[in-house]
Design a protein that fits this description.
Pathway: Cell wall biogenesis; peptidoglycan biosynthesis. The chain is mainly beta and 425 residues long. 5% of the residues lie in helices and 34% in strands. The protein folds into 3 domains: 84 residues, Immunoglobulin-like (Sandwich), CATH 2.60.40.3780; 104 residues, Immunoglobulin-like (Sandwich); 141 residues, L,D-transpeptidase catalytic domain-like (Beta Barrel), CATH 2.40.440.10.
């Protein structure tokens, strides 16, 4: 297994392409995570919300004063990521928000679960005038109403891009994390604002959390345990127009709705040189394997199948060690790290599989087992490797499950309630 390093990211508008750059087990430059390509997904968004702020209740029998709306009446150059909030004298609950353009076109939206603000269902338009009317019920029993007209900013010139590694109408394995990627990375002081605009809903409901890695270039979302079979995951990175401290703005919202399939898990034990394959909790096959030799060990940890190629070519000629340079045709390749580790068929090592490690870091299986396994797996299926000389490096692949839950939530930019954050709406 060669060295692991991440590719520098230069981004256009990015949705993860179906094909990721391929290299062999040796890693090196060819084994790095691919840079963004045209046609991928993007980023942005800071909340303009403010929670209801109880103040002195109205006195006497006079009608209550109007509630205060944010953005304020006459506000200009508001981000298109703006949310609507209101302050009711004495406290209370917002019951209705009506937002429309000057020609009367209504804007759909939803109130956050905590009642702090109303979130438009899509980014607002640049350079556009909006009027909002908010109605609420005060603790004093009175009905309050407020109106505000504001204008959004012109489209900014400096943008930041992002990727969402999830596709609509696809079925994934139970360990599929929601992966958001940013280029350039999000500074620590901006991550809470960005995270507040990254919405994940699951059906059936399962709490979760975000975890930031790689200097803010990547964030994972997962639940405390693997997703339940049959779960629907709906994601919106509502980040268009988010103002960041580096002077850039998010350029577009991205969303996806995907399904989680059957529970399929692979566990590899270096001590026995065997892979145990389970489906829906039942062991269905045990396969002999050959892992990375001592000079190029396989990574120990829980990884996720990120890409599948029935036939490809591993090219590790950029490896610093001449002994690890080769060009080889490979069948039934399944990528599990950015650094070049795969599960794949290796007919040349079938004689030692189950007995000795001879690979450059990949999980070698026989041609027959490789074909069978390839036909069973989904992107997002977990593989746990135990007992090797190398520990899986954070960010070397979709490493969300290589951390305990307590370690994972420690990487959130916002507080996470015990057991995980509920859905935002």
């Amino acid at each position: 297994m060669g060295r692991f390093s991440r590719a520098g990211a230069t981004v256009g508008a990015l949705v993860l392409t179906a094909s990721l750059a391929l290299t062999g087990c040796g890693g090196g430059d060819e084994g790095k995570k691919p840079a963004f390509e045209p046609g991928q997904q993007q980023v942005g968004g800071v909340s303009a919300s403010a929670p209801a702020d109880p103040s002195a209740a109205p006195t006497g029998g006079a009608p209550a004063a109007a509630l205060t709306v944010s953005p304020a009446d006459g506000a200009a150059s508001r981000p298109v990521s703006t949310e609507i909030s209101a302050r009711i004298p004495g406290g209370g609950t917002v019951s209705k928000v009506v937002l429309a353009t000057a020609d009367g076109t209504a804007v759909a939206g939803r109130m956050r679960r905590d009642g702090s603000s109303w979130v438009p269902s899509a980014a607002l338009k640049y350079g556009t005038k909006y009027t909002v009317t908010v109605t609420g019920a005060g603790k004093d029993g009175q009905t309050y109403e407020g109106t505000s007209t504001f204008t959004t900013m012109a489209k900014p010139k400096s943008m930041i891009g992002s990727g969402l590694y999830l596709f609509s109408d696809k079925t994934y394995g139970v360990a599929m994390p929601v992966v958001a990627e940013f280029s350039p990375g999000i500074p620590k002081k901006d991550r809470a604002a960005v995270q507040k605009r990254m919405f994940v809903q699951t059906d059936p409901p399962q709490p979760g959390a975000w975890h930031w890695v790689d200097n803010g270039t990547q964030a994972y979302y997962r639940a405390p345990e693997y997703w339940k079979t049959g779960t629907t995951i709906t994601v919106r990175l509502a980040l268009a127009g988010i103002p960041l401290s580096n002077g850039r703005y998010g350029n577009i919202d991205r969303s996806a709705t995907a399904k989680i399939g059957r529970a399929f898990e692979m566990t590899v034990d270096n001590a026995t040189k065997r892979m145990t394959v389970s489906e829906n909790g039942t062991v269905i096959r045990t396969l002999p394997v050959s892992l990375g030799k001592k000079s190029t060990p396989s990574s120990s940890g829980t990884m996720v199948v990120m890409e599948k190629k029935e036939s490809t070519v591993f090219d590790t000629r950029s490896e610093p060690d001449p002994a690890n340079r080769y060009v080889t045709e490979i069948d039934f390749a399944q990528r599990i790290t950015w650094g070049g580790e795969y599960i794949h068929a290796a007919p040349w090592s079938e004689g030692v599989q189950g007995r000795r490690n001879v690979s450059h870091g990949c999980v070698n299986v026989s041609m027959a087992d490789g074909r069978w396994l390839f036909g069973k797996t989904l992107v997002g299926d977990p593989i746990t490797v135990k007992g090797t000389e190398r520990r899986l490096a954070p960010g070397n692949g979709w490493t969300a499950w290589s951390l305990s839950w307590s370690e994972f939530v420690a990487g959130s930019a916002l507080p996470v309630p015990e057991g995980g954050q509920p859905a935002p709406f």
